């Protein structure tokens, strides 16, 4: 009963918080047909400032802390990001009318991290006066990059195997005819012409090429979200940005976050229509996956808590970033890395359902769970 009461109290508080309030508000005005638009350039500036602030917080904390404390949480972050991709590969991809490559891309997006969801969790932890390591925000790239890389690698391996299998089947089929004389009516289907065998051999050869990992990592690092985050971390470690942090970035943080939530709410509503074009299993996955992913990370976080003293607030952050799905860096990275995947499936599942579930339900759920375990 203590856990349930804590959860419902936190859930009600989250409904009343500006973070979720602006998100729901954005969905409502979009549903009512409002013509309100926030220019894309302004949204990019807001995202840059939010993630730079989070990066600065983490960088300053890393500079003033023992780096060995980060090793286990960082390792768990990497493991969770990769694991989420394989969970989607062997669960979502097996469901009716779900294309494997779309399922893998969805897993990559859910394995990657939402900066806005993480920012919302940090805000609520501060409101609840629950302590956490300031460097916990720096776990973001340790989960985000491995998830995106894993998704792109797994998808390309799958596509290459599929291409190679198709080429092998065709060449095997034609091999029995290769020594027979060719007559005009022997190949009514154009794709069966012997002249096309060379094309299939080229496809097979291209499928044998290995997926290159570094370009994927490089593209992720150069994305706007991670660039801002890593810039903030680097400045926090290598310089003394406390004065500009305290006078500019910190005071503006919550206001800018509320504007971003409004934008995300409007976009979430627009993406709901796109989900109708793909299998309804994406809706089920988007409702269940954030809790499953978060619980896995929460369990690993508890191991770090008992083994190294990792705070319960840090455990909550680890669980929330696992429950979140990337809304900034992930989509463009996956569009480039898995161009054959359907964005309506993985972006629609993430933005329309995954993000509201992570912010509105998962944050209070894991916060309440941590408070129940901590006895407060």
Structure description:
The chain has helices spanning 2-16, 18-31, 40-63, 71-90, 100-111, 115-127, 140-175, 197-207, 213-222, 224-238, 242-275, 281-308, 312-323, 330-337, 343-374. With 376 residues, the chain is mainly alpha-helical. It has a single domain, classed as Up-down Bundle (Na+/H+ antiporter like fold). Helix 3 packs parallel to helix 10 (224-238), helix 7 (140-175) runs antiparallel to helix 8 (197-207) and helix 7 (140-175) packs antiparallel against helix 9. It is globular and about 70 Å long. It starts with a helix and ends with a helix.
CATH architecture group name: Up-down Bundle
Tell me the structural class.
mainly alpha
Overall form: globular
Which CATH class? Mainly Alpha
Mean pLDDT: 81
CATH topology name: Na+/H+ antiporter like fold
Overall number of structural domains: 1
User: Count the helices. How many?
Assistant: 15
Could you give the distance between the termini?
13 Å
Percentage of residues in strands: under 5%
Q: Runs with pLDDT <50, length 5+?
A: none
* Helix-residue proportion: over 70%
Helix and strand sequence: HHHHHHHHHHHHHHH
User: Tally of extended strands?
Assistant: 0
**Whole-angstrom Rg:** 23 Å
* Largest sheet, strands/sense/barrel: none
List keywords for this structure.
single chain; 376 residues; mainly alpha; Na+/H+ antiporter like fold; globular
């Amino acid at each position: 009963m203590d856990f349930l009461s804590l959860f419902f109290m936190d859930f009600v508080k989250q409904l009343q918080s500006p973070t979720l309030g602006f998100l729901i508000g954005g969905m409502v005005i979009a549903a009512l047909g409002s013509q309100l638009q926030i220019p894309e350039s302004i949204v990019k500036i807001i995202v840059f400032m939010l993630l730079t602030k989070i990066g600065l917080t983490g960088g300053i904390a890393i500079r003033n802390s023992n780096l060995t404390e980060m090793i286990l949480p960082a390792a768990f972050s990497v493991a969770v990001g990769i694991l989420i991709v394989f969970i989607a590969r062997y669960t979502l991809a097996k469901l009716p009318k779900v294309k494997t490559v779309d399922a893998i891309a969805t897993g990559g997006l859910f394995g990657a991290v939402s900066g806005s969801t993480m920012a919302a969790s940090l805000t609520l932890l501060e409101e609840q006066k629950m302590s956490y390591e300031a460097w916990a925000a720096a776990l973001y790239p340790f989960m985000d990059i491995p998830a995106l890389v894993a998704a792109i690698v797994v998808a390309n391996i799958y596509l290459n195997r599929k291409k190679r299998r198709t080429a092998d089947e065709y060449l095997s089929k034609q091999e029995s005819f290769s020594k027979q004389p060719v007559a005009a009516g022997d190949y009514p289907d154009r794709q069966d012409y012997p002249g096309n065998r060379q094309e299939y051999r080229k496809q097979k050869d291209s499928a044998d090429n290995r997926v290159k990992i570094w370009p994927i990592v490089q593209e992720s690092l150069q994305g706007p979200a991670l660039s801002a985050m890593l810039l903030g971390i680097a400045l926090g470690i290598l310089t003394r940005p406390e004065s500009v942090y305290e006078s500019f970035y910190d005071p503006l943080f919550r206001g800018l976050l509320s504007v971003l939530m409004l934008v995300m709410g409007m976009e979430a509503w627009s993406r709901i229509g796109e989900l109708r074009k793909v299998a309804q299993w994406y809706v089920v996955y988007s409702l269940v996956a954030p809790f499953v992913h978060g619980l896995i990370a929460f369990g690993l976080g508890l191991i770090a808590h008992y083994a190294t003293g990792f705070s319960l607030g840090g455990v909550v952050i680890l669980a929330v970033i696992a429950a979140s799905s990337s809304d900034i860096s992930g989509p463009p990275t996956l569009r480039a890395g898995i161009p054959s995947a359907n964005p309506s499936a993985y972006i629609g599942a993430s933005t329309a359902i995954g993000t509201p579930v992570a912010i509105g339900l998962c944050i209070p759920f894991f916060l309440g769970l941590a408070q129940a375990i901590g006895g407060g």
